[in-house]
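Weekly modeling sync, notes
Attendees: S.R. (lead), two postdocs, one rotation student

Agenda item 3: backlog of single-chain predictions. S.R. asked that every request posted to the team notebook include the full sequence so nobody has to chase files. The rotation student volunteered to paste the first one in as an example of the format we agreed on. Action items at the bottom.

Example entry:
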Amino acid sequence: MSENRDIAQQVVDAVGGKENIASFAHCATRLRIMVHDKEKIDQKRIESTDKVKGAFFNSGQYQIIFGTGTVNRIFEEVEKLGIESTSQDDIKSKGKKQGNAFQRAIRTFGDVFVPIIPVLVATGLFMGLRGLLTQDQVLSWFGTTKDSIPPNFLLFTEVLTDTAFAFLPALVAWSAFRVFGGSPVLGIVLGLMLVNPALPNAYAVANGSAEALTMFGFIPVVGYQGSVLPAFFVGLIGAKFEKFLRKRVPEALDLILTPFLTLLVMITLGLFAIGPVFHSLETWVLHGTTFLLNLPFGIAGLLIGFFQQIVVVTGVHHIFNFLEIQLLERTGSNPFNAIITCAMAAQGAACLAVGLKTKNAKLKALALPSSLSAFLGITEPAIFGVNLRYMKPFVMGLIGGAAGGFLASLFHLAGTGMSVTVIPGTLLYLNNQLPLYILCNLVGAGVAFTLTWLFGYRDEPAAAETADGTSSASAGRSSEQASRGTASTAPAAPMASAAANVSAPALSGSENSAASVQPSGRLEIQAPLTGIAVPLSEVPDPAFAEGHMGRGIAILPTEGRVVAPFDGTVAHVMDKSRHALILEHAGGTQVLIHVGVDTVSLKGRGFTARVASGDAVKAGETLLEFDLNVIAAAGLSPITPVLIPDGLDTVLEVEPLAGGEVRAGQQPVLAVSFSSALSA
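Predicted structure, as returned to the notebook:
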């Protein structure tokens, strides 16, 4: 279509021309463009372009919102202009180049360690359960003692608790090869070489029961069980070296020479150069961390408890992953976890105080579920949605975190694992520490809640009401919707008589010769997810929050399942990312369900589609499943917009019906009123 071709050309010109485009891709709703020079973008021209619903920078990308369906057509027209599209992997990697060197380094560090955190979480839980099952008090309940535990059972528990850390270099090297573009299998083999049983065991050398090998008369060589930095840099340099070789080795010899040379050169460097150097650096980092945590009078807990959530706001908190892994593999315990848990509980309590104190229904609907999320270990909704918005609750949360962290440091609390915090984190403190763990969290939360209630938040007055009792915001929205409806002249598609709570009132004819718009039906859309329903404006993405993508509601999910909100047809499923889909009702109404914010960057990881485009589905049928832990580990928000896309001429009004807790398929969350063009 020439119109879309013209729009594509206008977009290219407005972002500075072909030469200013480093790469471009698209997701379900928007073009994602990386540019060389931001100053060349003509923002006003972009916003005035036909079909553009908004444009902004986010995650290092210039995102132009077109909406579902339209974005695919514009994307195709841009490609026809001779601009080569880019995969989401490539555009994400280019986004990593944004920010200063320190921020880029931390993001890269996080990309390497985040994928291996789940297995370390599981190992920590195994340690906690083992500690619980071997406690004298617990064993006495079953009339037994430690001596009565079968040795083979203890051996089984050691397999569960020791394997991940014994072969940690293999996990780190694998992930590093994956991030830096090498062959992950080579990373696994290099990591295993670093802990080969033929080498002196690092733990045995540390306790004096074994001696390091001496190579060339002066280089000490040991295994690197539990080490992180040697494996990380072996992976980084090894991936770069492998890519270097692949560009230069003839294709006929590539399969033989490239892996051979990569393994030979990198294990030589790893054992004789990279290993000794970075193992020494790692030791100094551990000593520095231990020194900080051993400061007297709870100073460490006071400082870390106060500043940790500030670090979360900056986005460089992945640096703590390395420190926690080091503590766990060297000491078997993690005092960081206890301190930062208190900081998270405090932010959740500050958010809870706002939610309980406010009379603003909209803020309450956001604050209460956000506080619950914080108590489950994810503080971003509470921090960015509530506490930072009003600032004082955030500060009171910092003070509460310092108070709780202070006590945790005084009591020498230490978890058996990492990345599980607050309520789920209790599983890391089953080895006689649980009462103190609960006390420290209650103190941190109590201080933050009390300070926020008394000094940190003053409720804002409700929105002014119009003479008929409706809020001014609602009146404005109704007026806008009415104006949209009046402009509609397209006939409504036939309504399915029994599907999805659709009612079809009788229609009255018009005596005018011109077509006039009349209501022809109402569709109630059931909750497609279980969770907390909040206003669309609370989605931390301007494309959704400002209504560029359509009207609707958002749900903060507590379960990873999306069900059909009515009988209909799957109009579209994002094939690769599987994070979003469009369902179409027999009456022509479409609903977009977009799981999470920027979850397209996960490339489908954690998402499983149970349907395909074109499938007919029944209300309540599972459409897709997703893993909330994967989304959280990637630092993304799982909040899910459920909306009616703009551009449906038959839709007169979209009315949110629910707020607070909803269950999938059990209650309506949106009501859609239809129009029909009738003539005399």
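Discussion: group reviewed the output briefly. The mean pLDDT is 79.
Action items: rotation student to repeat for the remaining queue; S.R. to check formatting next week.
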